[in-house]
Design a protein that fits this description.
The protein has about 400 residues and is mainly beta. The chain has 2 domains: about 10-255, no CATH class; about 260-400, Jelly Rolls (Sandwich). It is built from 3 helices and 25 strands. It has helices at about 105-110, 185-190, 200-205; strands at about 25-30, 35-40, 45, 50-55, 65-75, 85-100, 115-120, 135, 150-155, 165-180, 240-255, 260-270, 275, 280, 290, 300-305, 310-320, 325-330, 335-340, 345, 360, 370-375, 380-385, 390-395, 395-400. Strands 1, 2, 3, 5, 9, 11, 12, 17, 22 and 25 form a 10-stranded mixed sheet that branches. Strands 4, 6, 7, 8 and 10 form a 5-stranded antiparallel sheet that branches. A 4-stranded antiparallel sheet has the order 16-23-18-19, with no helix packed on it. It comes from Flemingia macrophylla. This is Stress up-regulated Nod 19.
Length: about 400
């Protein structure tokens, strides 16, 4: 039977590695905020290698909590931060799922997710399992804030909302690209198909997001960056293999009546919205290609008009995008700017300031109550990149909304 290539972002092909060690450091901070630093299971890379991994049951704070921040960086076996020009972190996604307690042993033994697991996606508008995560960025992770203002937090672990017989768990979906010695480092980070050692019948056996055979016009992106594939190297280049991990720090509070829950939405600039009567049907593509045209001073704009079935007060927003990004802006139906997220590009060689890479995206913290999205409002998302040929471009916008501004006081 021939192997069918599918994108890791769809979570349709999952490999579980249970043999590596995990470490954690817990810290008690002031104002009843707790924090913990964990290290994920490790994965091996070598010059030009693609690592597309999914790790189940990652370490995560227990109990009924409100998460205040979730920060990630890529580290080597000694805990040293890895620069983007050595290994490019394309994306990491933290995804919530419910696991049937009685089937847990079967899942670990046979790596079988078809039974006993229920994925719990964010409140975003994309279809099915497209962009299902609660937290996730990429190369910009180190320089992008994830802090949520008091008294707001993402509520997790509420036993009332947990299906009977299930546990709440978390998983990582990760794509990292080792570009040491790469013939075309930029093209490698964009997953250009012609730079990878794809099987000869790749286009015959690979299905796209729509479930149909991948078009020959597909020149690069998630479908070509498959686990263990090799990016073309400079002639004669040799380098060592090594193990890498995600080091992640979570800050949270124990949930009580003083916390206000936030709903998390991911909006996609590729969302092709159509309607079936009064029902909006979303068709997010997750990525897109900027066509090969003459360079222009005007940016390339990818635009989507996205109806929000349920609105709320906006408290934080930022974008996940790739190198070449100009900015991303989210507009209200009346044309008001809800949030613009802009990139910070590195200028040096040190970790967190790698020249030419996006090392951070700005976030918006509107004054509480100043930005309200109405139920049914149609938002416009515009993703802007330099007007140059680019594959695998992403324009994801993350927003946190609250139903209320303050805690509800219950009187006797």
């Amino acid at each position: 039977m021939r192997k069918v290539f599918k994108p890791s972002i769809l979570l349709l092909s999952i490999i579980v590695f249970l043999s590596t060690k995990r470490f954690s450091i817990f810290v008690r901070a002031g104002n009843d905020i707790e924090s913990a630093t964990f290290v994920s299971e490790s994965f091996e890379v070598g010059p030009g290698k693609i690592a597309a991994k999914t790790f189940l049951d990652i370490k995560f704070p227990k109990g009924h909590i409100g998460v205040k921040s979730f920060d990630v960086e890529l580290v080597d076996e000694d805990g040293n931060s890895v620069p983007l020009y050595e290994t490019y972190i394309h994306h990491w996604f933290a995804i919530k799922y419910f696991e049937n307690i009685t089937l847990s042993q079967n899942i670990e033994q046979y790596h079988d997710l078809r039974n006993g697991v229920v994925f719990q996606r964010n409140q975003g508008t994309c279809q099915g399992y497209m962009l299902p995560h609660y937290w996730g960025l990429g190369a910009e992770s180190r320089g992008t804030s994830s802090n949520l203002p008091d008294p707001f937090a993402v509520e997790l672990g509420n036993p009332i909302k947990l299906p009977y017989g299930f546990k709440e768990k978390w998983m990582f979906n990760i794509m990292a690209i080792d570009t040491r010695g790469a013939h075309n480092r930029k093209g490698c980070t964009e997953c250009r198909c012609k730079l990878l050692n794809l099987p000869k019948d790749f286009y015959n056996i690979t299905k796209g997001i729509d479930g149909q055979p991948l078009s020959l016009s597909y020149k690069g992106g998630l479908f070509c960056c498959q686990d263990n594939l090799q990016c073309k190297l400079k002639k004669g280049f040799e380098g060592p293999r090594r193990n890498l991990s995600l080091r992640y720090k979570i800050r949270w509070v124990d949930w009580d009546e003083h916390q206000v829950p936030l709903n998390f939405y991911i909006l996609d600039a590729t969302d092709r919205v159509r309607s079936n009567g009064s029902i909006a049907i979303h068709d997010c593509q997750a990525e897109y290609t900027i066509p090969r045209i003459h360079d222009s001073d005007s940016p390339h704009v990818q635009k989507a008009n996205i109806p929000m079935e349920k609105g709320g007060y906006l408290f934080y927003g930022t974008a996940h995008m790739h190198t070449g990004v100009v900015n991303a802006t989210l507009y209200g139906q009346d044309g008001r700017i809800l949030c613009t997220s802009t990139p910070k590009y590195g200028t040096g060689k040190e970790v967190g300031n790698e020249k030419g890479y996006v090392v951070g995206m700005s976030g918006c913290y509107p004054k509480p109550g100043s930005m309200k999205i109405n139920d049914g409002e149609i938002l416009t998302l515009e993703s802007r990149y330099e007007n140059k040929f680019r594959t695998g471009a992403m324009g994801h916008f993350y927003i946190y909304l609250a139903d209320q501004l303050h805690t509800k006081v219950v009187k006797d």
